[in-house]
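Backbone-to-sequence.
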């Protein structure tokens, strides 16, 4: 299985990765919801939830507040509530890529194929959504389709270059789909960097074994 790098699942690790906000600068209540973003980033999703729900108490149809409510619930590991919030957002905007991404990140914990469908919808609605592209790749890999994971992970890197979690997941997808030589191009530099984690080194070792370099793999571990 492709191991997540986390943001979510990466961020599911999908974000911790909470999905970056796509808030219009002219939307009402943005300053308040920006505080909710900061609260989630600072590890205080409870505060973010209170802020989002305060906004929703004044306007139950506030799409951005629903996104923040969903993200706060996700960070609190309350996925059923998170999905409910994102589905309400979809009721306001049936083509919301952010809402579909949020739903997928909850579904991936229990049903990768369902998550894949949510991420595919998110990508269809917004091909520039790097989070959705990356998460689509992860979901495909977790569903046993490592080869199918490669394209969306590559697209995610084009949209958000330098994302380490995506690079690791792409390297693993390549290795698991029989392209270990290509995988080494991504995993090798990460494995020898000062910030290399045991997981990254283990993934690099797996790619080395796939390339017939078992002795080098043992040295890495």
């Amino acid at each position: 299985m492709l191991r997540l790098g986390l943001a979510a699942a990466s961020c599911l690790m999908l974000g911790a990765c909470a999905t970056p906000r796509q808030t219009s600068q002219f939307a009402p209540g943005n300053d308040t919801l920006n505080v909710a973003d900061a609260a989630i980033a600072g590890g205080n999703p409870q505060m973010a939830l209170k802020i989002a729900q305060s906004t929703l108490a004044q306007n139950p149809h506030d799409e951005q507040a629903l996104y923040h409510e969903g993200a706060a619930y996700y960070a609190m590991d309350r996925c059923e509530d998170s999905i409910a919030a994102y589905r309400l957002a979809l009721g306001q905007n049936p083509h919301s890529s952010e809402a579909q991404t949020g739903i997928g990140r909850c579904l991936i914990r229990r049903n990768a194929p369902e998550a894949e469908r949510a991420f595919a919808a998110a990508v269809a609605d917004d091909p520039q959504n790097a989070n959705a592209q990356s998460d689509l790749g992860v979901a495909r890999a977790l569903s046993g389709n490592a080869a199918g994971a490669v394209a969306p992970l590559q697209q995610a890197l084009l949209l958000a270059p330098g994302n380490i979690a995506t690079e690791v997941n792409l390297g693993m997808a390549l290795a698991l789909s029989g392209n270990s030589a290509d995988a080494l191009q991504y995993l090798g530099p990460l494995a020898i960097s000062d910030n290399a984690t045991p997981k990254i080194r283990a993934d690099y070792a797996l790619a080395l074994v796939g390339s017939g370099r078992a002795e080098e793999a043992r040295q890495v571990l």
